[in-house]
Amino acid sequence: MSQYFYVHPDNPQARLIKQAVGMIQAGAVIAYPTDSAYALGCHIGDKAAMERIVRLRELDERHNFTLLCRDLSDIATYAKVDNATYRLLKTHTPGAYTFILAATSEVPKRLLHPKRKTIGIRVPEHAISQALLAELGEPLLTSTLQLPGDEYPMNDPEEVRERVGSRLDLIIDGGFGTLEPTTVVDLSGDSPVVLRQGRGDPAPFL
Questions:
Q1: pLDDT at 61
Q2: Would you list the DSSP string of 30-45?
Q3: 0.85 exceeded by the pTM?
Q4: Domain that holds residue 100
Q5: Most buried of 11, 45, 95, 176 (most Cβ within 10 A)?
Q6: CA angle 105-60-126, nearest 5°?
Q7: Given strand 118-122, what is the order of strands in its sheet?
Q8: Are 53 and 29 in contact (CB under 8 A)?
Q9: What is the pLDDT of residues 85-96, one digit of tens each?
Q10: How far apart are CA 82 and CA 2, in angstroms?
Q11: 187 closest CA partner among 124, 99, 72
């Protein structure tokens, strides 16, 4: 059974955040709140933890994994971005968007879309997510906590504990999330393409 931390959604307790990050660095898979729904997270370099997320969500090989970033300073390390795209990202981050971008060689191959060699980038507007990233000092590998067959992602940490607590190492309870995932925008081509409409306003990319 997983550990369960009650973390204040606006003023996260530093002690609990530090403990959570220590678990991530040691190989944990966690559930945590974002500015949309709850998400699953693990260390970017941990293949075994990533494979646990794949099994939990029953993802196929075409799934685009996402790197949760504190701000845009990580973008150039993990994604290829021209000036126009960078300005677009700067305008719409932080926020409930996931942007699909061409990946750099710094991204482990197992995280890439197998044909397109892309990676998702996300900068959340949520105090707990930001606190985790600040303590971690690098992006967090993340995926929306939406279980196979469910119409919506999970937004209730108590339900997360009931349904998948035995398959996680830590659940961070930061209160209820929304029932909406992020809006996914593909910026890897010549013009933006909205792949999924979610909490982020898709209008600027249509």
A1: 80
A2: EEEE-SSSEEEEEETT
A3: yes
A4: 3-205
A5: 95
A6: 70
A7: 3-6, 170-173, 30-33, 38-43, 140-144, 66-68, 118-122, 97-102, 183-186, 193-196
A8: yes
A9: 999 999 999 999
A10: 42
A11: 99
What residues does 118 pair with on adjacent strands?
102
Overall residue count recorded for the chain in this entry: 206
Total domain count for the chain?
A: 1
pLDDT at 116: 87
Residue among 1, 5, 38 at smallest CA distance from 171: 5
Average pLDDT over residues 100-118: 90
Provide φ and ψ at 136, rounded to 5°. -70, -40
Mean pLDDT of the chain: 94
What are the tens digits of pLDDT across the range 10-45?
A: 999 999 999 999 999 999 999 999 999 999 999 999
Q: Among 61, 68, 181, 43, which Cα is nearest to 113's? A: 61
CB 124 within 8 A of CB 34: yes
Compute the distance between CA of residue 75 and CA of residue 171 in angstroms, rounded to an integer.
Answer: 28
CA separation for the pair 151, 84 (Å, rounded) = 35
